[in-house]
Specification:
The protein is built from 13 helices and ten strands. By secondary structure, it is α/β, with parallel strands linked by helices. The protein has two domains: 105 residues, Rossmann fold; 182 residues, NAD(P)-binding Rossmann-like Domain (Rossmann fold, 3-Layer(aba) Sandwich). It has a seven-stranded parallel beta sheet with strand order 6-5-4-7-8-9-10, sandwiched between helices. A three-stranded parallel beta sheet has the order 1-2-3. Helix 1 packs parallel to helix 13 and helix 5 crosses helix 7. The chain is globular and about 65 Å long. The two termini are 20 Å apart. The mean pLDDT is 97. Bound molecules: glyoxylic acid. Glyoxylic acid (GLV) binds next to loops.
Length: 313
């Protein structure tokens, strides 16, 4: 294990075999990691690990890389497949936590909660005012969901409870009973961007989605619109977003992920109309425990000769 994971998952792995886990707060030093990888039959990785040919060269016995995340853009899956190394991720168990955080960010941005917090903490005198810090309500507004998988759908059902209208962009249409339940309509991306009051990103990050939201895409959004990103940072061109927010070309943004994580574009930090969170989408005790247990179950299944429960390749 390249990092610490919750104890119940560690317990499962200890029952099944011999375990080594890096216990430091900083990333594991490469020489320490490689010395352990040399004998590893399976590896549990975090989204901050880059699993590439160099990593795999150091792990010649490894038969599975179990990522403790639903996103696996940190793993070169083709390189793993070429070496007959299985890859697994943790879909499903983090859907609700991530959808909840998305709604929290959406409300924080549209109701200016970050600004309000900063005002009070700064000690600036204030009093209730009819026109003070007015935001935007959600009822009757259109939410455009880019990537209508498990998390996108869970966000849509929460947003319906807030009275929002749902449109989505996805390679394939979602099942018609879900479309009906959510009264959701599938739209081309440009139409979704041009007509949504809030755009929320839930697609995986890949070459195809790199800078999907660039200057041109931002220019098609409404001036009153908000962008929420709880997916992966590089789906958005962060410099273009800073320009758009700075010029008032969109109203605001809420970001849980960043292009060069953990670095945050300095332009974002200076702006009042953006809410910033440090990649907390799945960060509840229950969810992180469930994610780690699922990763452990993938390793154990594969090494026992069974099919892993949530394989990627
Ligand atoms: C978190 O970002 C995940 O992909 O699980």
């Amino acid at each position: 294990m390249t990092g610490r994971i919750p104890e119940p998952a560690l317990g499962l792995l200890r029952e099944a075999g011999q375990v080594w886990a890096w216990d430091g707060d900083d990333p594991v030093p490469i020489d320490v990691r490689d010395a352990q990888l040399a004998d590893a039959d399976g590896v549990v990785t975090l989204l901050s690990d880059r699993v590439d040919d160099g990593f795999l060269d150091a792990a010649p016995r490894a038969r599975i890389v179990a990522n403790v995340a639903v996103g696996y853009n940190n793993i070169d899956v083709a390189a793993c497949t070429a070496r007959e190394v299985r890859v697994s991720n943790t879909p499903g168990v983090l859907t609700d936590a991530t959808a909840d955080l998305t709604m929290g960010l959406l409300i924080a941005a549209t109701r200016r909660l970050g600004e309000g917090e900063r005002l009070i903490r700064s000690g600036t005198p204030w009093k209730w005012g009819m026109f003070m810090m007015l935001g935007t309500g959600l009822q009757g507004r259109r939410l455009g969901i880019v990537g209508m998988g498990g998390i996108g759908t869970a966000v849509a059902s929460r947003a319906r409870a807030f009275g929002m209208e749902i449109v989505y962009h996805n390679r394939t249409a979602v099942a018609s009973d879900i479309e009906q339940l959510l009264e959701a309509r599938r739209l081309p991306l440009d139409e979704l961007l041009a007509t949504s009051d809030v755009v929320s990103l839930h697609c995986p990050y890949s070459d195809e989605t790199h800078h999907l939201i660039d200057a041109a895409a931002l220019a098609t959004m409404r001036r009153s619109a908000y962008l929420v990103n709880t997916a992966r940072g590089p789906i958005v061109d962060e410099a273009a977003l800073v320009d758009a927010l700075d010029d008032g070309r969109i109203a605001g943004a809420a970001l849980d992920v960043f292009e060069n994580e953990p670095d945050v574009h300095p332009g974002l930090v200076d702006l009042d109309n953006v809410v910033l969170a440090p990649h907390l989408g799945s960060a509840t005790t229950e969810t992180r425990t469930a994610m780690a247990e699922l990763a452990a179950r993938n390793v154990i299944a594969l090494l026992r000769g069974d099919e892993p429960p949530t394989p990627v390749n």
